[in-house]
Every structure is written in C-alpha cells, then in structure tokens.
Design a protein that fits this description.
By secondary structure, this protein is mostly helical. It contains 3 helices and 3 strands, in the order βββααα. Strands 1-2-3 form a 3-stranded antiparallel β-sheet, with no helix packed on it. Helix 1 runs antiparallel to helix 2. The longest helix is centred in the middle third of the chain and has 72 residues.
Amino acid sequence: MSVFDDSFVILGDDASEPVPPVSSYDGSAQVDDYDFAAPSSDNGGYSNGDGVFGSNGGGHEGPILPPPSEMESDEGAALREWRRQNAIQLEEKEKREKELRNQIIEEANQFKEEFHKKRELACENNKAANKEKEKLYVETQEKFYAEASKNYWKAIAELVPKEVPTIEKRRRKRKIPRSQQSL
C-alpha cells in the first residue's frame, strides 16, 4: 500500500507494481486499476474495509490501542541500565549529603558548646573585675567624702581632672551635625 502527498490511500497496491512518477505521468493508467477509499462517515478517517484504519461498518468499536496508563513502556536496555545507575548514584549522593549535613551539625554543636563555655568564663572574669573596681571606687568615695568636709577646695580640685574628659566628649557630640550622627 502506498500513500501519496494528496492523502489518498491506494488500496490493493502491491510492492511489485511500479507506480508511475508524477512528473512522467502520461495518463495511460486507468482509474479502474486502483481502489480508492473515500472518507468514512463514522469516524472521519479512511477505511479499507478490514478494520485497520477505522471501524468496519457503521458501529464505533472504540480505540484500537489501550490507554497509555495500561500500555507497558517499551524502553531499551540502555535506558533501563542508565536509570538503574542513576538511581544508585542518587542514593550515594544522598548518603554523602546526609553524612556531610550530620558532620556540619556536629561541628556547629561543638562550636556552640565552646562559645558558651568561653562566654561563661568571660562573664565570670568580668564579674570579678567589676567587683574589684567597685570596691576601689567605694574606698575612694569614702576617702573623698571624709576629706571633703575638711577642705572643700581641695576636693573640688580632685574632681575637676576627672570630669574634664567627660565634658569634652559631650561638647564633641554636640558639634557634630545631626545628619552625620545618623551615619
């Protein structure tokens, strides 16, 4: 059977019969030598009467092929082998990623423990240093107030050198324009 570009199907055509080329067609072939099939009215397709391209008669028998979900996939051996190897590679990759993730989590937990130990040690050291500074401050304050009642001007002279740096800091802050302070 042969199919021409004009969508007509020639029925009863043997491969042994030569088909004349279109460019050298001389009109000597008779139309009665070939059986042409007309479009079938039941499914809109061409039918040759043996049910290959459509139904045999007026009734609709349904599709020739089963639904795609019921069809078995016809894949080659190379594709099956690739899928198998790909699945193995994906499992290995997942194992590596899981091990790496567990290692990262373990390192992070160790870092957190070390950080908390260092932080607690620093806090203890700061508390001890602050207590020492507070004791020293309280002693100097007691000494200052004991001497302040005896000699006012001497006590004031001792306070001035301590307060000058803080006053200068305040002046510097006031001189900075507000637009630069936000930066």
